[in-house]
Amino acid sequence: MSNDHDSKRPSHIAYQVREGDDNKSYFNRIGAVWQHKDGEGFNIQLDSVPVDGKVTVRSVQDRIQEAKDNARDAREGERRDDKRASNREDRRDRDSAPRYER
């Protein structure tokens, strides 16, 4: 078998999925997958094999989109927190300013 796929990017990534104590799934990359030119099969290159034998294959685009969504959600949460904090700081400065009576 030739290694034509070595110069091209994989179409899919192979993962071993581990369930954490906090009910989250942790994806550990264990290999790469290249689709055949005719679309009828795949070449799989695994760097390691999970003890339980379970391999999850996801398209590269799925993982990229998922990472973008997570990053966007995190940024939006930070913005909300920053706005709330800045509003409180503004209010605190205004409330603690010296009062002048006329």
What are the main properties of this structure?
alpha+beta; elongated; 4-stranded antiparallel β-sheet; 27% strand; 102 residues; single chain; 35% helix
Provide structural commentary.
The structure is a single chain. This protein has one helix and four strands. With 102 residues, the chain is α+β, with helices and mostly antiparallel strands. It has a four-stranded antiparallel beta sheet with strand order 3-2-1-4. A hairpin with a 5-residue loop joins β1 (12-19) and β2. The longest helix is centred in the C-terminal third of the chain and has 36 residues, at 60-95. The radius of gyration is 25 Å and the shape is elongated. The relative contact order is 0.14.
Task: Please sum up the structure shown.
Helix content is 35%, strand content 27%. The protein has 102 residues and is of the alpha+beta class.
